[in-house]
Specification:
Blueprint lengths: L3 E5 L3 H12 L4 E5 L2 H10 L4 E5 L7 H10 L6 E6 L3 H9 L4 E5 L3 H13 L2 E2 L3 E2 L24 H8 L4 H12 L8 E5 L5 H11 L7 E5 L5 H9 L16 H4 L4 E5 L6 H13 L1 E3 L6 E3 L3 E6 L3 H7 L4 H7 L2 E5 L9 H16 L8 H8 L6 H16 L11 H5 L7 H6 L8 H15 L4 H8 L3 H15 L3 H9 L1
Parallel strand pairs: 1-2, 1-3, 3-4, 4-5, 8-13, 8-14, 9-10, 10-13
Antiparallel strand pairs: 6-7, 11-12
Amino acid sequence: MNARILIVDDEATIRSSLQESLLNEDYEVDVAESGEEALAKCHGTLFDLVVTDLKLPGVSGLEILQALRNQGKMTPVIMMTAYGDVDTAVSAMRLGAYDFIPKPFKLGTIKKQVRSALRATVTVAGEVSVQDESELRPRKKSSPRATPDVNGRYMQMIRSCPGLEKVAGILEKVGGSRSGNDTSILIQGESGAGKEIIARAVHEVSLGAADRFMEINCAAVPETLLESELFGHEKGAFTDAKTRKEGLFELAGGGTIFLDEIGEMGILLQSRLLRVLENRRFRRVGGKDDFEIDARIVAATNLKLSDAIEAGTFRNDLYYRLQVVEIEVPALRERPQDLEVLTNAFLREFNTQMGLQCEPVDAALLETLQKYPWPGNVRELRNALKRIMILEEPNRLEEKHFPSHILAGRNPRTSSAQVAAGPSAGLLPLSEVEKMQILYTLEMTENNKSKAARILGISRQTLREKLRIYEEAENQPPELKAEEAES
């Protein structure tokens, strides 16, 4: 099968010329005019190569690269960039871009780089030498079992956190278990507490560590599409099924499938997932052939599934099938001793990404940070540090870099009555924490939505939608606001 390539550029002439040129080389070529469109296409299609402009409206080429890597996809990415952005492109290469090509360029140069990228060595939790295009297609069966990486990046982070000692012990037992990938794992904890980090650590210690880590957020995909994303579909299975598509259960091989926000999955799809887990076999939508599952299933939720079961929105039998091993992730406020490990880990990450040399956090500032309840958990901490590193580029963290509510140890919108009631009463709903963080980031970036979206780790389109919701809420009649507050 010919290699499948995605071209991403907001200039129509560049998209069309590159598409025509690569089609003449017998590649399958798709195009996208924005980063958002590119990520949507990458979510539904496995590309062998992405060629993207570095600067795009909304989601940038660098954010496309980061999103692919965060999803565990090691698709080679070639960056196209104007001469003035070469330094940024070099930084992108440090993050995993295959190469960059300055604009204006010759089509012959692009063709040469495409051929080179498709022949290159691709790293997928280990090194796999790709010699021809056929090896770039997804495997139907898992690769030979590799020795689990019990000292992998995510496992090391968890071991370093004193508050996750119990979690580390469970993961070590999972890694040493002979039951293999038949053992499903359910991770529960508040939003932002680090459930994905633990899921990736599960993958590291599993026998299928050499295969893929495939993740999907069940709350972010419409239920009508989620079944196809999980199990794939045959051509003509429904109106828009113009080609056959492999789903996550097929693409993962003997690796790991991470079903985030499993509590948001519809009840009908839960029934099919239950049958798949029990039989370890699945069938594409509209298909007749069965495929065996060799991957480990890891699910996560921030909901209390016991409440969902009682409400009739989650199947009791699926819950017990998923939680063969159950992992509870403590909120960050319950493990302040982990702040030093996490803060310094994020500082090292951002130092590498941005070419900075920020020193580890000192004891005095650490004591201040430990007094804040971190209602947004690890995600809030990471975003706060990322914002500081982007806007301030400090050599060392100081109190002046943090917003006043963090230094005060409470949320800025906590009422005096709530404070008097005690720390737990002063915690805002997560939706309010999110709103507070978005508005604060906009203020710090002088209302630059593109920059704010990059800091927050969301697309500009998502940011605009959030702001629209906030504006509509502010414009509600007073009686409706009062009703919502009471509810």
